[in-house]
């Protein structure tokens, strides 16, 4: 399906607004992040996998990553043709593997394993993505130690938030 729209900006994030009627034709009555494949002005060659984000009123934001805008030679203010398809291949859940050290810790520690299981899938995914994105082994180890402490019930700051997992 094609949407003809103007690239707007929300804070620092360029997006195309996808009306509720268009989103409903992709997936009726969908209210959470909607996995789609897109091309902007028939670019890039392969579809770009992305999630449309619900705006709260039935419409969706389709944020356009810099790589998509570079490939399509577009910028904020341009009117574009966006081809949007529902991404049937999308699989929810962690996209990054759990570090072996954390996996072994959870196997041996029932309290921590239960605390990990009690985290929402999105929070688990966020933690694994964070750990996978760390550049140095020292930073990775330091942050694995922090999540181990948090899962054992320690109250502390980790990943820019206060953690207090009650057991």
| Beta-strand percentage range | 25-35%
What is the architecture of the largest domain at the second tier of CATH? Beta Barrel
Helix content range: 25-40%
Beta strands, count: 9
Describe this structure in words.
This protein is α+β, with helices and mostly antiparallel strands and 167 residues long. The chain has 2 domains: 2-86, AF2212/PG0164-like (Elongation Factor Tu (Ef-tu), domain 3, Beta Barrel); 100-163, no CATH class. The chain has 6 helices and 9 strands. It has helices at residues 20-26, 66-72, 100-108, 110-118, 121-133, 137-151; strands at residues 2-6, 8-10, 13-18, 34-40, 43-54, 60-63, 79-86, 156-158, 161-163. The protein has a 7-stranded antiparallel beta sheet. Strands 8-9 form a two-stranded antiparallel sheet. Strand 2 and strand 3 form a beta hairpin. Helix 3 crosses helix 4 (110-118). The chain is elongated. It starts with a strand and ends with a strand. The relative contact order is 0.14.
Q: Could you provide a short overview of the structure?
A:
The protein is an alpha+beta fold.
Topology:
Blueprint: E1 2-6, E2 8-10, E3 13-18, H1 20-26, E4 34-40, E5 43-54, E6 60-63, H2 66-72, E7 79-86, H3 100-108, H4 110-118, H5 121-133, H6 137-151, E8 156-158, E9 161-163
Antiparallel strand pairs: 1-7, 2-3, 3-6, 4-5, 4-7, 5-6, 8-9
């Amino acid at each position: 399906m094609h949407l003809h729209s103007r690239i707007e900006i929300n804070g620092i994030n360029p997006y195309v607004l996808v009306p509720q009627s268009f989103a409903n034709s992709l997936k009726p009555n969908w209210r959470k992040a909607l996995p789609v494949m897109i091309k902007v002005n028939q670019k890039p060659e392969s579809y770009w996998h992305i999630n449309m984000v619900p705006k709260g009123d039935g419409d969706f934001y389709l944020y356009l990553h810099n790589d998509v805008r570079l490939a399509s030679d577009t910028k904020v203010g341009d009117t574009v043709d966006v081809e949007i398809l529902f991404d049937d291949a999308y699989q929810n859940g962690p996209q990054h593997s759990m570090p072996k050290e954390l996996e072994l810790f959870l196997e041996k520690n029932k309290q921590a394993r239960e605390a990990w299981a009690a985290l929402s899938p999105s929070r688990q995914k966020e933690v694994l993505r964070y750990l996978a994105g760390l550049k140095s082994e020292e930073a990775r180890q330091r942050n694995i130690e922090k999540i181990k402490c948090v899962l054992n019930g320690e109250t502390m700051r980790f990943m820019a938030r206060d953690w207090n997992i009650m057991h």
